[in-house]
Amino acid sequence: MKPILEVENLKTYFFTKEGVVKAVDDISFHINPGEIVGLVGESGSGKTITGFSILGLIDSPGKIVSGNIKFKDLDLQKISAKQMQDIRGNRIAMIFQDPMMTLNPVLRIETQMIETIKAHNKTISQQDAYNTCRDALGLVGISSPDERMKAYPHQFSGGMRQRVSIAIALLNKPDLIIADEPTTALDVTIQGQVIFEMQKLCKESGTALLWVTHDLAVVAGITDRISVMYAGRIIEQGSTDKIINQPLHPYTQGLIKSVPSKNKKGEKLHQIDGMVPSMFSLPKGCAFEERCYLRSEQCKQEEPSETQHTDGRFLRCLNIGKQT
Amino acid sequence: MKHILEVKQVTKKFVKSLDKTAKFVNYFGGSYKEEVVHAVDDVSFNIQSGEVVGVVGESGCGKSTLGRMIAGIMPLTKGSIAFKEKHYVGYVNDKYQQDHAIDLKIQMIFQDPFSSLNPRKKVVDIISEAPIHHQIISNKDKKSFVAEILNKVGLNIDAMNRYPHQFSGGQRQRVGIARALAVSPEIVVCDESVAALDVSIQAQIINLFLDLRKNMNLTYLFISHDMGVIEHIADRIVVMYLGQVVEIASTNEIIHQTNHPYTKALLGGVPTLDTTRKIYEPIKGEIPSPLNPPSGCYFHPRCKFATEKCKVEKPLFKEIAPNHFSACHLND
Amino acid sequence: MTQNNKYELLAKIWSEFSENKIAVVALVCFSIILFVAVFASVISPTDPYDLATVTIMNSRLPPLEEDFSGNVYWLGTDGAGRDMLSAIFYGLRISLSVGVLSGIFALIVGAFFGISAAYFGGRYETLIMRIADIQLSFPSILVALIILAAFGKGVEKTIFALVLVQWAYYARTARASALVESRKEYVDAARCLSLGNLRIMLNHILPNCIPPLIVVGTLQTAHAISLEATLSFLGLGLPQTEPSLGLLIGNGFEYVHTGDYWISIFPGIALLITIVSINLVGDQLRDMFNPRLKR
User: Cβ contacts of residue B101 below 8 Å, gap of 6+?
Assistant: First the structure.
């Protein structure tokens, strides 16, 4: 099965006055049609920039320096701006952490949703567009959609706004949705609803989903595969089951062990000592070396390249051998 | 002494009164109503010395407001709070009083590491300002005093002369903790203090809290929406919904003998590192607006087990097992 | 990216400021004007108010004319024989001092009311802000005229009038800033630590409100200078003994019709350059502080 999205050796750098920030430094991953893939990392790991790079939303001083982004055989970097415009919101949609990045506060919901449809389908009638939008709202669990259509974003709660953003993302039946921390700002009970709905909708419509987040617990439950990012690179990627239950990279292991539920109550949580290095002065060699329990002299000198482990997953580490 | 803190029927009401136009219209038969929000509605509980009490709930439940009232920075509308059995703040015989001698004993650690430190002050001044102002230390002891506290919170001494923007989120939280510790509090209210931090830093700060509790004999009121964190460090948990307390029990009992349907929903909705593909059973409905709470039991529109009684009558907050309190008609 | 050095901070501010070349030119202009104003008595070719040297024989000499003793008057002389160049130098000094002084007092008064209004809120805030709004809805020139008509001419009275006209701008800006700052958690923390309201307002909130106040200050100073010039031109405001640029323009006005343009125009140009350069500097400061409020 051919992947619907293939990212190869992507590098997105930011050229600021204070120096070059290698926000995304040589990452490769792919998404198959209908798959749900998690892109996990903490702040500064580059996961959000990855999402923006795919959609061509990187503005100066940032620039995609090298690498390929292929969407269904289309090289996203070589197409014209107009072609990219056709793809955005239509074949690839994005959901942001803050629904107000999607929603215009001065327009009614129906105006915004119909606009999304009409931007990519010039021939559709107003009534048909309206019906599609209303049905989409129903699909994401918003009751009395006809009334809701006439409302403004500020009349909705945070959870509902996010659901409207999801509905908008689904309107044109995209092949891929990139969701950047879609449930982080939501309450726990609403988060549960939204995760449930997204999972259901993606499975029903065969839409692939890239779920970008720092929350391992959320991706553990719904993704098929996970890629873990640290300081601009993917340090481990593979099936969700393997990554969560048998993490190999010391960073992934540390992350999972720090989650409170994995620790004995009342005892000190496992912590990864130290901090993420400043992106302006990344060390030579492996970026995680200072905080790693497996570190060796070689790690200080040599940056690990991505290699495939025997169980199929990919790792960036000099000290976890190819043999188990 | 039994309790280090007693919260007695504490209520906080926010009222948006009618302006002149609305009053004018009402005079001619209009029906504008005042907007009243009971951010915290008749909350009572006690904290033992050395305990960690977790307060958990979602948006609009009032946990932050409650925390601020306990810390003394938000006035109460009704009720009172006692510290070590002496009146601290609130109404005594219909008179509002606040004992300022106790103010410093209850300190607060805030959520946002970026706005909780004054960007124009150096770390040494941020930490030493209050102790110098209250004459706990003298100006010349400033540096050594701050050095000692920085050590306790795991920061390097050269942090003293730097400004907040030079630190990361986790480090800023440590400065905030140092600032609170500088006045030797006995109770520390943590208002979502780790919510804005990355998981790996969160673990460091939580460990710091646990260490300080042991070394400095602190009592914590830990406010969070993150059940996972609360489960780990709290001895007892207070569950709030729309300004009211719905359940209080030891952490163990809350998890293994959950009583209130909302607590059950809260626990059930928390994503865990469980890869067996979980089908979420989300509870239906939105969190109601605090301006317009439902009648009877606030949770009834979303409750699987709601009965007719639930729609009409507010359930009493009762002890249903030793030291386990809940407000649900199903217990009757 | 550590900026613990004050010099590094200044260097950073300078590099941002100098991105706009026009503003740099304006700053240079203004620096020259400031220099002239401060050292007027030293660098002036003559003392135009020394009755011993001024003689009516030299009156109304056009620019670059020589007088009988061989002195060249670069910008000509006025009706009483005073050297225009020197008069302008002294005039700049007076205009700038009145403008800057009134700006500083207005800032103090405005910041005080604005910050306290934001901090305490409630009826106090409403009262202060309504007064400020009402004040701002009157044209400043009108208010100043009324005050000066009531109290008469004089330096202190002019400064008083200018402060009364300007404080509301500062108050509004200070309040807007202070509202944002008061809601931040470090103010809550200060309250938790029982630091006292006055201390919190002065020590915590005020320093964080300074950037927008500097911007308003710069632009308002230009406004004050121009307002004072208008008042002096009209014969109110500063007395004849303190001839600001406005007064010079006013005095020279009658000669414009007879063709002795230099008596009015040159002070006018000096005034124009002063106001424009201050405005350009203020604009650049405002642009700098805008997206960079998160320092």
Answer: none
Q: Enter the tokens of residue B211.
A: 């260490």
A219 near A31, Cβ under 8 Å? no
* Contacts within 8 Å (CB) and 24+ apart, A134-140: A136/A167, A136/A168, A136/A170, A136/A171, A137/A109, A137/A113, A137/A164, A137/A167, A139/A167, A139/A170, A139/A197, A139/A201, A140/A164, A140/A166, A140/A167, A140/A170, A140/A197, A140/A201
- Residue pair A307/A315 in contact by the 8 Å Cβ criterion: yes
**In this structure, which amino acid lies at residue B162?**
R
Structure-model confidence comparison of residues C67 and A167, the more confident one? A167
Q: What number of other Cβ atoms are within 10 A of residue C64's Cβ?
A: 11
Beta partners for residue A208, in sequence order = A176
Give yes or no for B144 touching A (CB within 8 A): no
Whole-number Å distance between alpha carbons of A279 and A302 = 18
Please report the DSSP string for C206-228 in residue order. Answer: HHHHHHHHHHHHHHHHHHHHHHH
The tokens of C45 are what? 């070719």
CA distance C186 to chain B (A): 4
Q: Tell me the chain C residues in contact with residue A280 when contact means C-beta distances shorter than 8 Å.
A: 1
Instruction: At A71, list the tokens.
Output: 């969407």
Per CB-CB distance under 8 Å, the chain C contacts of B107 are: 192-193
* Of residues B12, B60, B59, B14, the one with CA closest to residue B40: B12
pLDDT at A87: 87
Q: What is the DSSP string of B282-310?
A: PPPSPPPPTTSPPSSSTTGGG-TT--HHH
| Residues from chain C contacting residue B188 (CB–CB below 8 Å) | none
Q: Which of B111, B120, B161 sits opposite C4 (nearest CB)?
A: B161
Encode pLDDT of B12-65 as tens digits.
998 887 777 888 888 887 777 788 888 999 999 999 999 999 999 988 889 999
User: CA of B93, closest CA in chain A: separation in Å?
Assistant: 39
Residues of chain B with pLDDT under 50: none
Give the separation between CA C89 and CA C52, rounded to whole angstroms.
19
Q: Which residues of C touch A278 (CB under 8 A)?
A: 1
Helix, strand, coil tally for chain A in percent (to 5): 35, 25, 40
Q: What is the DSSP letter of A262?
A: G
Would you say the C-alpha torsion B59, B61, B62, B63 has a positive or negative sign? negative
Q: ipTM value, please give it.
A: 0.87
Rounded CA separation B108/B197 (Å):
17
The pairing of beta strand A208-213 with beta strand A176-180 = parallel
Task: Please give the radius of gyration of chain C, using alpha carbons only, rounded to the nearest integer.
Answer: 23
Whether residue A262 lies within 8 A of chain B, CB to CB, comes out as yes
Chain A nearest-CA distance from C1, in A, is 7
